[in-house]
Design a protein that fits this description.
alpha/beta, globular, 10 helices, two-stranded antiparallel ribbon, 11-stranded mixed beta sheet, 384 residues, 21% strand, single chain
Length: 384
C-alpha cells in the first residue's frame, strides 16, 4: 500500500463538525462566501498493484489509463484523511489591519515550497462541470500519478498536483446543473484569482528574502479541464482588477487548456482569455473533434462553437505563445468517442509531461507532429 498525498484549495462548504478536519466538502459555497478559500492536504491509501495495472493499461494511444486511475482513486477519496490549514482571522477587518492574523495559505505555501525543494514541479488542476468533491480528488490524484510516469524523457522530474475544487454540483441533470455550474464557475473564478494573487505575494516575498536563501528553482503550471477553463477566464478578470500596470504577473511556466468548454474565439485579443499568455511562458490547447461533451455544450446549451472541439477559430490571430494540439486520432481510439478526459491518459498525458520537462515543442521525442503549415497547430497521431 502507498500513501498518496494531495494539496488542495477549495471554496466549497465543509461537511462535519470540525472545519479543520472535515469529512468532505459539499456542493455549495463556503458559508463564509464564494471567495473564501480553505487550504489543506489529504491522504489516501492506494493499492500499488491497482496503480501499476492502470499505468500499464493502454488508453488514448499509449500506456497510462487515466480513466481507470480516476475511477479507483475516486472511490478511495470517500475515506480520505482531510486536514485543512487552521486560520486565525477576523472577517470584519481587512487582512492588512490584523496584527495577529494567521492565514491557512501561509502554511500551505510553506509546505508546498518544501515539496518543490526536492526537485518537484507543481501543477494546479481546476476541474470541470458536474464533478463532486470525491470525483475532483480522484481526478487530481489520477493526474498526479499519471504525470509521474516512468516513460518520460527525464526520470528525475517529479510532479505534484494541487487541486482547486469549486462547487460543481455533481448532479447529472444536463440542462439545470450545467447552468448552475456555469454560474458557480464564474463566482469561483474570483476565488481562484484571489488565490493567484496570494501566490504572487508569496513569491514576491521569497524574492525579497532571496539574499542568502535557497530557492527551489522549480516551475508551477496550470491544467484546466472542461468548464475549469471558464473558471480560469474569470480568474484573469479578478487578477486584472488587482494588478498594477498593463500586464498580468507571469506566475506560471505552462498553462494547459484541456477540452476547454469556452468559446472558440476566447483566446483572441480583447476576448476573455486573450491575455492568458501574460501569466505563462507557453499556453497549450488540447482539443478533440469527437468529444461528445463539447457537442452537448454547443448544441443543447445554446453555446457558440467550443474551443475543445476544433480548437481556436482563427489560430493565426493568437499570440505566439499559444499552441493547439488536435488529440482526435488518440482521444477516440478503440471507438471511445465519449472520452472527455483524455488529458490524463496515453499520448496526450505524455505530451503534457514532456512540456513540464522542458522539451522543445518540436523535439522528436514528443508524440505531436505539425499539422498543416501554421507553426502553432499540432496533432498527436495514433501509432501504428
Amino acid at each position: 500500500m502507498s500513501d498518496l498525498t494531495l494539496f488542495y484549495a477549495t471554496n466549497r462548504k465543509h461537511e462535519g463538525a470540525n472545519r479543520w478536519r472535515p469529512k468532505r466538502y459539499g456542493k455549495s459555497f463556503s458559508a463564509d462566501g464564494m471567495e473564501n478559500l480553505r487550504f489543506g492536504r489529504l491522504t489516501v491509501k492506494a493499492d500499488d498493484a491497482k496503480l501499476r495495472a492502470a499505468m500499464a493499461s493502454s488508453s488514448a494511444g499509449g500506456p497510462v489509463n487515466g480513466g481507470a486511475l480516476g475511477s479507483y482513486l475516486t472511490g478511495l477519496a470517500k475515506k480520505a484523511d482531510i486536514r485543512a490549514y487552521a486560520e486565525k482571522i477576523d472577517p470584519t477587518l481587512s487582512e492588512d489591519g490584523q496584527p495577529n492574523i494567521a492565514l491557512g495559505s501561509a502554511g500551505f505555501f510553506a509546505d508546498l515550497q518544501q515539496v518543490m525543494m526536492g526537485g518537484t514541479d507543481t501543477v494546479i488542476f481546476i476541474h470541470g462541470f458536474n464533478v463532486s468533491w470525491e470525483s475532483a480528488v480522484g481526478s487530481a490524484l489520477a493526474l498526479q500519478v499519471a504525470l509521474n510516469r516512468a516513460d518520460g524523457a527525464d526520470p528525475a522530474q517529479k510532479v505534484n498536483v494541487v487541486l482547486f475544487s469549486w462547487p460543481s454540483d455533481g448532479m447529472a441533470l444536463p440542462l439545470v446543473s450545467y447552468k448552475s455550474d456555469r454560474t458557480e464557475a464564474s463566482g469561483s473564478g474570483y476565488a481562484v484569482g484571489r488565490a493567484f494573487l496570494k501566490l504572487r505575494d508569496f513569491l514576491a516575498g521569497l524574492r525579497d528574502r532571496a539574499t542568502g536563501a535557497v530557492l527551489c528553482g522549480q516551475d508551477i503550471h496550470i491544467a484546466c479541464h472542461s468548464m475549469g477553463n471558464f473558471v480560469l477566464q474569470n480568474a484573469l478578470s479578478r487578477m486584472d482588477d488587482h494588478t498594477p500596470g498593463n500586464a498580468l504577473p507571469r506566475l506560471f511556466e505552462h498553462v494547459f487548456l484541456c477540452a476547454p468548454d469556452v468559446d472558440d474565439s476566447v483566446l483572441e485579443p480583447g476576448q476573455p482569455l486573450g491575455r492568458v499568455h501574460e501569466i505563462a511562458r507557453c499556453v497549450t490547447v488540447y482539443h478533440n473533434r469527437g468529444d461528445k461533451a463539447m457537442y452537448i455544450s454547443d448544441y443543447t446549451k445554446g453555446n457558440p462553437e467550443r474551443l475543445g472541439t476544433n480548437g481556436a477559430a482563427r489560430p493565426a490571430a493568437l499570440h505566439n505563445k499559444i499552441h493547439q494540439v488536435d488529440c482526435t486520432p488518440v482521444a477516440g481510439i478503440d471507438n471511445d468517442w465519449v472520452q472527455h478526459s483524455y488529458y490524463s491518459s496515453g499520448l496526450t498525458n505524455l505530451d503534457i509531461r514532456h512540456s513540464i520537462e522542458g522539451l522543445a515543442l518540436n523535439d522528436p521525442r514528443r508524440s505531436r507532429r505539425p499539422k498543416g503549415d501554421m507553426p502553432n497547430v499540432w496533432e498527436i497521431p495514433a501509432k501504428g
